[in-house]
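Input.
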Amino acid sequence: MSFPVTESTLSANELGKFIQQQYGLSTVTTCKLFRTGMNHSYHVADGQTRFVLRIYNHQWRTKMEISEEVRLLRLLHGNGVNVSYPIADKNAVYIQELDAPEGMRYAVLFSFASGKKVSALTAAATYHIGRTMAGLHRVTENLVLNRTTYSAKTLLSDSFTRTASFFTAGSPEMDFVKSTTQYLLNEYNNINVNAVRSGVIHLDIWFDNMHLAGEDRITIFDFDFCGNGWLCHDIGYFMFQLYNTNQAETEYRVKVESFLKGYEEIIPLRDEERRIIPLTGLAIFLFYLGVQCITFDSWSNIFLSEDHLKRFTGTMKRWVDYNKIVI
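Output.
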């Protein structure tokens, strides 16, 4: 008998043949594994035309969730927002079904985002990122997907349960996670929700999920965590990640002011949104700590440890201190 598996890596060579046939590509089409993780990504090339093939991990996303991601990306692309968008096969199908050893896995072929990842963003680049994010939010405000709604429960309560099931209670780091979670739950209950814009959010916009072709053309990709929530969650998370990659606070302030200027040239921020931005960035960091804990088998096992928790909470503590948050 074949021994059961929890995750397999599908043959790039065979996927290349499948994609060539399914999408009507030429015989020179190549497919190479790019990286594994929560999902597996492959680079596909047909001559000078490039694509990215995402193979969703078994039971990571339902077909409905992926269909809603596809719907969102088609809407954004159709409205001129620079995103990596899904490609339909020759039968007008966007989601492929692959019978892997562990069970059904879904696949979607995406356009390749021109440019490259840039971790050391300039102020000019963050300005255009702000404009791009605002353009995205202009389309997604008041939109609802049949996907996760990012509330205090999903971002904080559920995430703490996941984290607490992985790490031992009583350490200084877990005490910090617990107290910060409780603080944010109390703060979220006091937010004036009528003064905060809602819609569909990306939830993971940072340098690792965008390509820059020059400083003025930004293409956003990897909408795997898209869902419903306050639009300022995207702003808070990007600002938190920007802070992490700019240790000099003077540089950070220049870049974040440029980012906000670009955003507000498209959509002015409301006072309540501006007030809670530091809280939203912190909440999403706690959410992703919980994600790391539940994806140990497929992704986070190469780094998730007590040392990682110390570094992770250290990052959050710096953000707390910078924003003068009193927990």
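The two ends are 55 Å apart (CA to CA).
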